[in-house]
Specification:
The complex is a heterodimer of chains A (446) and B (280).
Chain A (H helix, E strand, L loop, with lengths): L12 H43 E8 L3 H4 L9 H11 L2 H13 L6 H5 L3 H4 L19 H11 L2 H13 L1 E8 H6 L1 H11 L4 E6 L3 H5 L12 H32 L4 H13 L4 H15 L1 H4 L4 H25 L3 H9 L4 H30 L2 H6 L19 H9 L4 H32 L1
Antiparallel strand pairs in A: 1-2, 1-3
Helix pairs in contact in A: 1-21, 3-7, 3-8, 4-7, 12-16, 12-18, 12-20, 14-16, 16-18, 17-18, 18-21, 20-21
Chain B lengths: L5 H10 L3 E12 L2 E12 L3 E5 L6 H7 L10 E9 L2 E2 L7 H7 E4 L10 H11 L5 H14 L3 H4 L12 H13 L5 E5 L7 H14 L4 E5 L3 H7 L2 E7 L13 E8 H6 L4 H7 L5
Parallel strand pairs in B: 2-10, 3-8, 3-9, 6-7, 7-8
Antiparallel strand pairs in B: 1-2, 1-4, 4-5, 9-10
Helix pairs in contact in B: 4-5, 4-7, 5-7
Classes of the chains: A mainly alpha (446), B alpha/beta (280).
């Protein structure tokens, strides 16, 4: 409110003096509140700066083998046979075998030694190769045989990307942040000229489609978030499928059916307390209950175990927010329904539930967004970070976006920090979407 | 579990044709608070009975006892009998859901469901399991006509009930109530949120409805009670020892008689004081 005029239309001196004092107090209050707001905005800005500074970088790239040494024409235009020849020239038979496991079978690293001791027919269907190969052990296959299998099992595009990755082996040798790029370009160029004369400089936004579509890799520039994104999606599905119905039913019971007994009040109090229990405790609970005790159902450290653990974590929040949404339904509506001769259940599903649903959904979405960013319980329940295979279902092993961020920030290579920044962007944008949906729901229906 | 079987109903109906409801020694408590004391009253069928009295004397409480809506209030306790066609509504074997189907209620504040007009009126029938579109349509039209709302809304029954004006909403609530054909309609200050014209419309409606239904109405409007009701019950806060009115005491029924007698020739001094506007 602007207050330009200072015309006194009261002659009461005492009152006018008091008024000045009252105004002064509100001025102080306004100043203080504004400062706290500015401080928190600054903190947010710093965070955003840090992330973006790492997500947009200049990278110095070096090829282990120059593509022009491999062929005269661009790699992408080569035939399958030519690509296989290059692979045969540059890779050991062991590396080639790993390509079978990794690219054709999509098997995780820990299974590779196991696969080595099997017969070929046990891992690849007969018919794709001469029959007499079938009885050979995988470890006994000749490079020529492996190349034939690769040519059979992989498309030309995949072979091109394998050649680029394994033979050309682009490597990021150094990363410069956005600030350095903008303010110290000459310095970067000078540094490159003296330290890495054979490299080329490239500006890189780490959050690109390749990043979203490829799996984890031991090299930062080849790493992607695919496995983690799929893992997080699976987790959220299971978490919601478990926590929503259970939480809403519990809240309905507490609000509409439970009598006001001391016992129920204790339960209510405990639910409120559970909402404040640190998430790692839920991780331990999940480890004991879902991974160990119910391991025969959940298959141990799987998406199912972790999803249920996260479900437990957000259950109290869903219960409490649902109770609030139910309490916000005007008594007059309940009375109207009961007055028409509705049973309790009819009142609930014809009036109470539809009216409370937007509020319930808002609470659920907000709690899901909390679960989406949770890391500690997943570490305890046992997500694995070096996993390249897409999760196949609730009983698969998994990784999730926050877990990837956590792992990447702990890696020695600088470039992993940029991959982590890109993953953080994915996380933050997803959370923003979650929260906007919640806000829209709340504004539209209440 | 219906106790009110057809046969007994008919038998009872002949006996209680005149008095459809009877309150005997009704006492209501909210926790420790004694809200209503020793009310005795007979409600004649096809008549309008008005409950008047100062604020807080327990009119709404008595009304809510007549279809067990007081069950919904935590800590409330009812003693005495509320007879409906000879059955005590507070008998353990009586299902309150059934009671409320036969004794409908219209509230002080119009409270249509946040649904379409059609769904509002069809609500009660759907609760009973009626799914036939034709039946529903027929009943909705009949009820809206009875509630004098049909002409105003017939163009678009899909409109939200909440988009109507206050007076229309209240008539919608009445339509909703009569759609399930209750025998008694309880109305708690149905016109208090309405303007005089809407009020007159509802009063006309009540006069028409009493041909088929028995109506009990709570009102603060003396003229309204005088205009529409056949019987009037005057409730009061109880008297203390020295004859002073004590706000903390239970409400009591001070006088109950034909409306013209209550308004023209009351036997109780406090009744005439109240009606003439000397207190309350
Ligand atoms: N749910 C409740 N819990 C506790 N006390 C209540 C409750 N409802 C009503 N009372 C008390 O019971 C007494 C009678 O209330 P009631 O609502 O029946 O009065 P009323 O005559 O309808 O008043 P008004 O004309 O203002 O509507 C009041 O003293 C009130 O405070
Ligand atoms: Mg009242």
């Amino acid at each position: 409110m602007s207050r330009k005029s200072t015309v006194n239309f009261s002659n009461n001196v005492d009152l006018n003096q008091k008024l000045a004092k009252r105004r002064w107090k509100s001025q102080v209050g306004r100043f203080f509140f504004r400062m706290t707001l500015i401080a928190s905005l600054l903190a947010l800005l710093m965070l955003a700066y840090n992330i973006l500074n790492r997500a947009f970088t200049t990278v110095a790239i070096e090829d282990t083998v120059n593509p022009t040494e491999l062929s005269e024409i661009p790699l992408a235009e080569l035939e399958k046979a030519e690509l296989l020849l290059i692979l045969g020239d540059y890779l050991s038979s062991n590396q080639l075998r790993i390509l079978i496991f990794e690219r054709i079978l999509g098997a995780p690293r820990e299974d590779w030694s196991d696969l080595n001791t099997q017969t070929l027919s046990a891992i690849i269907e007969v018919g794709q190769y001469p029959e007499d190969w079938g009885t050979m052990l995988v470890s006994e296959l000749e490079p020529q045989q492996i190349l034939a299998l690769l040519g059979q099992g992989l498309s030309q595009e995949l072979l091109v990307s394998i050649v680029e990755e394994k033979v050309v082996e682009e490597r990021v040798v150094q990363v410069w942040t956005l600030t350095e790029t903008v303010f110290n370009w000459q310095g970067i160029e000078a540094q490159v000229a003296t330290l890495y004369p054979t490299t080329r400089l490239e500006f890189r936004f780490w959050l690109n489609t390749d990043f979203l579509m490829t799996a984890m890799h031991s090299q930062p520039e080849l790493s992607g978030l695919r496995t983690a994104i799929l893992g997080s999606l699976w987790l959220m599905t299971i978490t919601a499928a478990f926590a929503f119905p259970v939480g809403v039913s519990a809240a309905l019971y507490l609000e509409e059916y439970a009598a006001d007994t001391p016992m129920n009040r204790i339960i209510q109090l405990n639910i409120a307390n559970l909402a404040g229990v640190p998430s790692i405790i839920y991780g331990i609970l999940g480890l004991i209950v879902f991974v160990r005790a119910m391991g025969f159902l959940t298959n141990g450290r799987t998406i199912l175990s972790a999803g249920l653990t996260l479900g437990l974590l957000i259950l109290p929040i869903i219960i409490i927010s649902t109770q609030e949404a139910i309490r916000a339904v005007p008594t007059s509506l309940r009375q109207a329904s009961y007055g028409m001769g509705a049973t309790r259940w009819q009142m609930i599903y014809t009036v109470l539930f539809p009216k409370a649903l937007p509020g319930i959904l808002t609470g659920t979405i907000l709690s899901l967004s909390r679960a989406f960013g949770e890391t500690a319980p997943l570490i305890v329940v046992g997500s694995i970070t070096r996993i390249t295979a897409d999760p196949q279902g609730p009983l698969s092993r998994f990784t999730a976006i926050p877990i990837q961020i956590y792992t990447w920030t702990a890696q020695p290579q600088d470039a992993f920090r940029s991959a982590a920044a890109a993953a953080i962007l994915v996380l933050v944008v997803t959370l923003l979407v979650f929260n906007s949906v919640a806000i829209i729901l709340r504004n539209r229906y209440s | 579990m219906t106790v009110l079987t057809k046969e007994i109903q008919q038998q009872q109906a002949s006996i209680y044709r005149e008095y459809v409801m009877e309150l005997c020694n009704l006492d209501v408590y909210y926790g420790n608070f004694h809200a209503v004391r020793d009310v005795n009253m007979k409600i004649e069928s096809n008549k309008i009975t008005a409950l008047i009295g100062p604020s807080g004397c327990g009119k709404s409480t008595v009304l809510r006892c007549m279809n067990r809506m007081n069950d919904l209030v935590k800590n409330s306790r009812v003693e005495g009998e509320v007879l409906f066609q000879g059955f005590d509504l507070y008998d353990a074997r009586i299902d309150p859901v059934q009671v409320r189907q036969r004794i409908g209620m219209v509230f002080q504040k119009p409270n249509p469901f946040p649904k379409s007009i059609f769904d509002n009126v069809a609500y009660g029938l759907r609760l009973l399991g009626e799914r036939n579109r034709d039946v529903l349509h027929h009943v909705v039209e009949q009820s809206l006509k009875r509630a004098a709302l049909w002409d105003e809304v017939k163009g678009n029954l899909k409109r939200s009930g909440l988009s109507l004006s206050g007076g229309q909403q209240q008539r919608l609530c009445i339509a909703r109530t009569i759609a399930i054909k209750p025998e008694v309609i309880l109305m708690d200050e149905p016109c208090s949120a309405l303007d005089p014209i809407a009020t007159l419309k509802i009063e006309d409606l009540m006069r028409e409805l009493k041909e088929e239904y028995t109506i009990v109405i709570v009102t603060h409007n003396m003229q309204q009670a005088a205009r529409v009701s056949d019987y009037t019950a005057f409730m009061m806060m109880g008297e203390g020892l020295d004859g002073e009115i004590d706000e903390s005491r239970a409400g009591e029924l001070a006088e109950f008689d034909r409306t013209d007698i209550i308004f023209n020739n009351p036997s109780n001094q406090r009744t005439s004081d109240y009606i003439k506007g000397r207190f309350g």
